[in-house]
Amino acid sequence: MYAIVDIETTGGFAAQHRIIEIAVVFHDGEKITGHYQQLLNPRRSLPAFITGLTGIDAGMLADAPDFSAIANDLWDLLEGKIFVAHNVSFDYNFVKQAFAQENKDFKPRRLCTVRLGRKIFPGLRSYSLGQLCEARGIRVKDRHRALGDAWATALLFEQMLREDRTEEIPRAIKGKEKARVLPPNISHEQYRQLPTATGVYYFHDKNGKVIYVGKAVNIKSRFEGHFTGKSKVSLKSEIHAVSFEVTGSELLALLLETLEIKRLWPKYNRSLKVKAASWGIFAYSDQQGFQRFQVNKIFPGVKPILTFSSHAEAWKKLLEKTSELALCPKLTGIQKTPGACYDFALGKCAGACCGFEAPEAYNRKAAVLWEEGGSRAGERFLIKDRGRNPEEEAVLLVEDGFLAAFGYIDQATDLQHSGEVLSFLKPVKRVVETQALLQAFLPKLPQSRIIPLAED
Questions:
Q1: What does the pLDDT look like over 1-21, one tens digit per residue?
Q2: How far is residue 252 from each of residues 170, 257, 393, 403, 429, measured CA to CA in Å?
Q3: Are the beta carbons of 43 and 66 closer than 8 angstroms?
Q4: Is 320 exposed, middle or buried (0-12, 13-18, 19+ CB in 10 A)?
Q5: Higher pLDDT residue, 234 or 46?
Q6: Which domains does the chain have, with CATH numbers?
Q7: Average pLDDT of the segment spanning 170-197
Q8: What range(s) does the GIY-YIG domain occupy (predicted)?
Q9: Within 13 Å and on the Cβ side, how many CA atoms surround 107?
Q10: Contact of 342 with 330, CB cutoff 8 Å
């Protein structure tokens, strides 16, 4: 037995919004056997655009029961039935959330008529409910009302049952996990074409615009992971295409992901937008020849030796290294004193601030901070890493701690002849986030994979 469900809600997110109408049309696999419909009071204000879309206003909901009042009856009606909906993730997540608030764990088998439509009725321009029903000669009564849409979906599903010559419905019910978690607008053919290699992948909306960029050691596996568990329903429903770029190198994939997010600013890549590296530790030499450090905001044209996403992180690192390396807190900008720093009297500072430690000796300790995290400020070198296939290698050009270019070469190429290699590399825009990533990765790389370049 199938339960074809449609809901109307106060908004698009199950965790934040509420159901205002639910309808269920029951089907035994041959014919419609009955239906259920109920308006629901969401116990919150109803947005005007929802009223404009559905025709449901606050007055219609004032005397309606809330979900808790119908939960037990609805549970009994749906229990044991296959949950069918057009873009099933949307309806299911709202119903699941509503039941969860009543301490009921709702986990039915599910079918999506969007995905089934692509398989059983291929070649259509659109698989929206309205367009699909029009193409199949189904008249939709009371569009954007739960019962009208549920009834139309039931008639559509009935046609699918009759014309399913390749047994797509039994296969979906039998349930490969992958089939259940794919976004409704992504076909199994698109999924099968995803590589198991390392690289960067892109989610596109219906207009082709990139809405998410990710990096993965296994692109296909990572794609699946997006849609298991508590995935974003809005993201899942917006994805209409997936593209990718294989890198072979995990480090290059991570750097390329960062560059692409900075270039495209996809709407679902929130973390990098918020956590962009905007603070740094800067180094300079004073008139006496002592190496000094200070924390400051990052500005164009001024290069820090280390980058951080917040002032607190940068300050914490400087405090740690000052203590660990026995640096003078006055020369690292931590203390502001007219004479010797306070640490000198405690025996923690060798006296660079008051003439007891020579610049040469002090700077040898300070040099360790320059190398912290592999910043390599002032250096220019190549990193060789795994390529896209066994016959090639990925090559990354690092300048002043930033990724400056990348490309691929034949494994037989001699990197000591760097001039020829550099001509094959693709230049990239320098962004501070790549410096932070390289700081983390470089200490882990074998020295054999780092090739210093002579100064021009």
A1: 899 999 999 998 888 899 999
A2: 43, 8, 11, 9, 14
A3: yes
A4: exposed
A5: 46
A6: 2-175 (3.30.420.10), 188-268 (3.40.1440.10), 279-359 (no CATH), 380-452 (no CATH)
A7: 77
A8: 196-270
A9: 3
A10: no
